[in-house]
């Protein structure tokens, strides 16, 4: 997960492989050896909101440590606890997850028979062994309070990755080819749409984060 454009970097002069301490990460580049999560954004789209929220950006400070999991295929406990307490919309208290973790009702989800593969899935590259990533969310209750100029809606959840024994450093030279699943989350911006990959009719990317 990176909030910046993907650019190639010149090889670093450090040794190809180097021990990394287990201290608290001090920079985003340290995240490879830890579990991290980022919560979805919901924009206050009330036309008279003060201050007006035309956009809610993702920031590096939004990353939350998950702690190393006892079982990578399970959701990060700390963040799952947060979402479990979110007030649900229409009484639906289910927490929906990435297709390969459990069966999902998300529009990119897998029905379990292979007939509705996720749009971001590459065939034969979901047998994860060391690092798991994905998202989970709840259909959160709309917060409509016009007297106080508050209007928020959309799913509330997290995107995350973690693992038992993840690689903490890539080789300093050579080419790396990744074949697998990309998980992403967007910021929110008035009028923003991603018609090819998101369900924009519900406001994904506009009123709340697309994922």
UniProtKB/TrEMBL annotation:
Subcellular location per the Swiss-Prot or TrEMBL entry: Cell outer membrane
Compositional bias of kind Polar residues: 19-29
Any one GO CC term of the record: cell outer membrane
Residues covered by the Transferrin-binding protein B N-lobe handle domain: 16-167
Main location: membrane
Disordered as annotated region, ranges: 1-35
Protein's name in the database: Transferrin binding protein B
């Amino acid at each position: 997960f990176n909030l910046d454009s993907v650019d190639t970097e010149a090889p670093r002069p450090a040794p190809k492989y180097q021990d990394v301490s287990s201290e608290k990460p001090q920079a985003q580049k340290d995240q490879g050896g830890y579990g991290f999560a980022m919560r979805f954004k919901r924009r206050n789209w009330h036309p008279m909101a003060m201050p007006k929220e035309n956009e809610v950006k993702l920031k590096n400070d939004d990353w939350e440590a998950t702690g190393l999991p006892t079982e990578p295929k399970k959701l990060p406990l700390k963040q799952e606890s947060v979402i479990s307490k979110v007030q649900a919309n229409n009484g639906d208290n289910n927490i929906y997850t990435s297709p390969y973790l459990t069966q999902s009702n998300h529009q990119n989800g897998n029905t379990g028979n292979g007939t509705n593969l996720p749009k971001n899935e590459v065939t034969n590259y979901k047998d994860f062994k060391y690092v798991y990533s994905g998202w989970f969310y709840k259909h959160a209750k709309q917060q409509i309070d016009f007297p106080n100029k508050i209007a928020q809606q959309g799913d509330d959840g997290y995107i995350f990755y973690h693992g038992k024994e993840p690689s903490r450093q890539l080789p300093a030279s050579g080419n790396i080819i990744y074949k697998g699943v990309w998980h992403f989350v967007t910021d929110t911006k008035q009028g923003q749409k991603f018609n090819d990959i998101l369900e924009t009719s519900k406001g994904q990317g506009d009123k709340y984060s697309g994922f």
